[in-house]
Amino acid sequence: MHGADADTHHGGHSLDLQSRAGLVAVCALLVLCVVSGGSSQESGAGVFAAQLLALPMLGWAGWRLLHATPRAVNPHPYAWLAFAGLLFAIPVLQSVLPAGMAGGEGRAALAADLGRFGVEAPSRWSLAPAASLAAAFHLLPALAIFAMALSLPAAAQRRLAQLVVALAVASLVLGVAQLGAPQESALNPYPQWSAAMNGFFANPNHQATLLVVAATLACARLAMVVGAWRPGRPHRVAHGVVAALVMLLAAVALPLTGSRAGVVLLILSCALVVAAHWPAWRGGVRSRMVLVACMAVAAIALFLALRWMQVEAIDELRGPLRALTGEIAARYAPMGAGIGSYVPLFEQEAPRELLMANYVNHAHNEYAQWWFAAGMPAVLAMVLGAVALASTLHGLLRQPANLRGLGVTALVALGAILAHSLVDYPLRTPAMLAVAAALAGLAAAQAASTPRLTHVPDRPNMMASY
């Protein structure tokens, strides 16, 4: 049997040979993406290898999904698959369709300026067709990870989530080691930048995003241990200790990365996870006291974090960057300037006061940059993505409270990445794009699973869901 129903939804740990092979393959691809894909600008041999590995894995995952159990008629995965298909189609079409269909005041002005110098205007929808086609290939590993995660049984999905946490811890350990090593050290994968708790990433803000994801997943495990605690079960105590340690490491390391948004997202994500898990173990005075205590700690931590955060010069520039991105995008509406055209077009259109020694690589707002690059098709993709998220949340809320833990947690962690994308660009890195794809696959698969319980037991087996 294939799909999430291939093992018992009550937490079976046995995997058939094909599921084990699928788990190994998707884990290998995820590790390769995270270790080699920490930059939004550079793509070396590791990223290229991940793209090649993604091609057969996409076919394999598609075969598994087509031969899945009848639970696949559930609409939640199909909303995600439609979103993923549109996301891949946009850059491909931009690289091949003619410029005549794009229109826009900015494109006409650019063609007139080039004509004065005898230069032919761009002939494709995208002003940078090669970069647009390359962007489509960059999506392949994430699409493969999503599809394979969607096809795996529940026990394998839990192990994939644990790998995400392990990768975050490994990146943090590497970041600590980088602080004591020379800039040109082999420990720094991007020696052109000074090491600053970067880990696998070129930008420490993206290290912070991965730490938030890991802390969110660890918080869910800790909530389950607390909710289902019984005397005489030391292995569960060990699970709780490890989860608490991961959360503590993330909380200590996040301020050192310089990401203020990461600190706030950590607090909000953990609070949401605790609140989401509480229905599965409520009923006693102890559970209500734990919930109140957790919410109080979250409120105090959020207050202190907001007081601690200070606006730095670079962040004062992010507002004007986003505003100017919107102005340029309006000139190239309704079809956008093309994925991969942001850097040269921004340099051309930006006023002199925003031109700096270092070029502006991204808008620091993923949604504004998508509007810039792909116009109305990007808006359609974002709407479809929102529908997929809402459909997944609806499907998870229909699950029994003690069975939806992993799905809800993955959705909260994915929401943290999407929220960080309002002020940064984590999804522009192959590493975080792969992690987001894994989380989306886990959430969609859990939402599509057929509930096996009609009520929530008074004392559920909390460890079954994650």
Automatic annotation (TrEMBL):
InterPro entries for the chain: O-antigen_ligase-rel_domated, WaaL-like
Alphabetized GO MF terms: ligase activity
Localization in the cell: Membrane
Name listed for the protein in its UniProt record: O-antigen ligase family protein
Membrane topology: Multi-pass membrane protein
Highest taxon above the source species: Bacteria
Residue ranges of domain O-antigen ligase-related in the record: 245-382
Pfam families, A to Z: Wzy_C (PF04932)
Residues spanning the membrane: 21-39, 45-66, 78-97, 127-148, 160-181, 208-229, 236-254, 260-278, 290-309, 370-393, 405-423
Keyword terms of this UniProt record: Ligase, Membrane, Transmembrane, Transmembrane helix
